[in-house]
Structures are given as structure tokens and as C-alpha cells.
Amino acid sequence: MSQESHVYPVIWYDDHVRLIDQTRLPNEFDWVEIRRYEDMAMAIETMIVRGAPAIGVSAAYGVYLGAREILTRDRTVFLAQLEKVAERLRATRPTAVNLFWAIDRMTKVAHQTLGSVDYLKQVLLETAQTINADDIRTCQQIGDHGLTVLPPDPEKLRILTHCNAGALATAGYGTALGVVRSAWRAGRLERVFADETRPRLQGAKLTAWECVQEGIPVTVITDNMAAHCMKLGMIDVVVVGADRIAANGDTANKIGTYSVALVAKAHNIPFFVAAPLSTIDFAIADGSHIPIEERNSSEVYQVSETRLCPKGAEFYNPAFDVTPAELITGIITEYGAIAPADLKHKLQDKHVS
User: Fold this and answer.
1) Nearest-5° Cα angle at 274, 298 to 210
2) Last residue in a domain, options 112, 138, 164
3) Which terminal CB of the chain, N or C, has fewer other CB atoms within 10 Å?
4) Mean pLDDT score, 320-347
């Protein structure tokens, strides 16, 4: 039994960033080397790196890489050009708020740091590395807090998750899968049920891959099997991740999460969201204000090079949906599990930008 995840999808290596190419998993394990901010932007857009916390960490490094490419020694000119770098990175994916949180933190550090441009660049690298290390530690805290709120019965739990909120979606360890890992280490996990998560199959490809690497028992089910499995008593609790959480607890996560929450409610099964504080967007009151990314229709009508649907049909491909707060049992953060209605009261003063 592994004591911790050794999957780290975003690594600062020598003078560049190394990303696990998640588009090639589970059949191929490959690294992509990123030395320019435009390459980082493309890696985020094409989902070489994905998952809100991992996107945030990658974007932070992207800001530094962009800073490194700016040749001027004039501070004012440097800051103006750095904002163009930040704007390019902000434009990559609209829903994951960690992206904007990390970029804003980096640009704020740039404006507040005194000294030469060379010194400022060094501080930006150190800040990105801090964001990276903090995310791993935060995920471990989320996992341990999650363990304390899992149902006491049965002794060994069957946990359903949707999409991939594991080490691959973070800097390491994971949010929803961080809870799974902590349960596994504590001897409280019988099995993970992983929704395949159409259309990109992150559950079937990535969550299952992570579990297999660590010997965690995993069963992949199609997205339309969740209600059936709950009715048969095969699921004890649901734990999912998040890409953005509104101030009232409404949560955007991978498309299909809302359906899982509805059927969990119908079967009286606890439904938890696991996410770091940086995923909570206190600037928006509720989920109706969360922008929902729409991706290329080819993700729906074909898998790899195989076309599944007839030409002439139309397609709709939102990447996320919003689960209303009233369907969520609790939101597990690095500060503990909190009822959605209590987020603003208990956590807003801890939010650092």
C-alpha cells in the first residue's frame, strides 16, 4: 500500500517545466518540456495539463517563463509586458478559477517587489515554486480532513468519484482522490467506483490509471450506471473535485457531476466536494455567474480517430455543469469540511490573492 502519491504532473526541472502529457495516458507515459509561456498556454488549452489546481500551478510557472522572455531592464516596461503574458494565460480556460487566482498572485508579487528586473524574475520563480509546494501540502490536508467526515459505516467504504480529481489534477496527491488515498492508507476503503466521464473519459483513463499505479481497487462504470449502482447498494459516499465554487457553495465541476449529485440525493447518499480554498470564488454570489467552457464538438462525435456519430448531426459540448449547494453535503478544504452555507462566514477572511 503506497503511503503517498508519487505522481507529480507539474515539475520545475533545472530551467524549465516538465508536464506529464495527460492526453497520452493511460497507454503512454510521456513528459512534455515547457520553456516558453506560449507553450504553457497551449499545454493548458489542449489539456496536456488539466484539473483546476494543476492548471493554477502551471499558469504560475507560465507567468515566470513569460517574465524570463522579457529582455528589458526597465521596470515599467517589464510590468507592462508581463501583463500581456498574464492576459494570454488567462484566456486559456475560462471556468477553472485557480488559473486566475495563481496568475493574479504572480502579477501582484511582481508589482509589489522592489529591486532590479533580474531580482523580480527570481522572486517570480520562487513564488511559482511556493504555489507548487503549497498545493501538494494542501491536498494532503484535504485528504486527511475528508477522512474525518466520511460515513462511519460501513467500516470499509465504496466511494464513487466523477472525472479525475487526483494527483494528475493537482500538483500531487489530489483533492477527491486525496480523500480516497487517505481512506486507503487508513484501511477504510474497499473500492473506488470511477465514472468514465464522457466525453474525454478522464475517469476511465486517468482516475483508473492513478488507482492501478498504487494498487487501490478500482471499478470503472459508464456515466449512466451511477443511479443503478446506488440503487443496488454498491455506493456508500460520493466525493468529487471542483473547478470553481461560488460564495454560496454552488459548484462547477466536470459535466455530469450535477446528475451524480441528483441521484445521490435521491438515494440518501452523502455527496462531498473536495477542493482547496483557491477554488472558491467569493466574488460571485452563486453558480449562475460561473462561466461554462464549451469545447470542440469533435470530443463528442469521435473517440481518438474513430467517429461515433453520423455527419449532419449537431453537437453540444459544455465541459462543466453546476451542482447547486443544496445537493452538497459538505465542501472539504484544507481548513476542514464546511457546509456550503458557511463558506463565506468561515473562509473568506482566509482567502489570499
Assistant:
1) 60
2) 138
3) N
4) 95
pTM comes to 0.92
| Residue where a domain stops, chosen among 105, 138, 171 | 138
DSSP collapsed to 3 states, the chain: CCCCCCCCCEEEECCEEEEECCCCCCCCCCEEEECCHHHHHHHHHCCCCCCHHHHHHHHHHHHHHHHHHCCCCCHHHHHHHHHHHHHHHHCCCCCCHHHHHHHHHHHHHHHHCCCCHHHHHHHHHHHHHHHHHHHHHHHHHHHHHHHHHCCCCCCCEEEEECCCCEHHHCCCCECHHHHHHHHHHCCCEEEEEEECCCCCCHHHHHHHHHHHHHCCCEEEECHHHHHHHHHCCCCCEEEECCCEEECCCCEEEECCHHHHHHHHHHCCCCEEEECCHHHEECCCCCHHHCCCCECCCHHHHEECCEECCCCCCCCCCECEEEECHHHCCEEEECCEEECHHHHHHHHHHHCCC
Catalytic residues: 243
Task: Render pLDDT for 11-34 as a digit per residue (tens, 0 to 9).
Answer: 999 999 999 999 999 999 999 999
Of 83 and 2, the one with more pLDDT: 83
CATH code of 327's domain: 3.40.50.10470
Higher pLDDT, 67 or 4: 67
- pLDDT for 5 equals 52
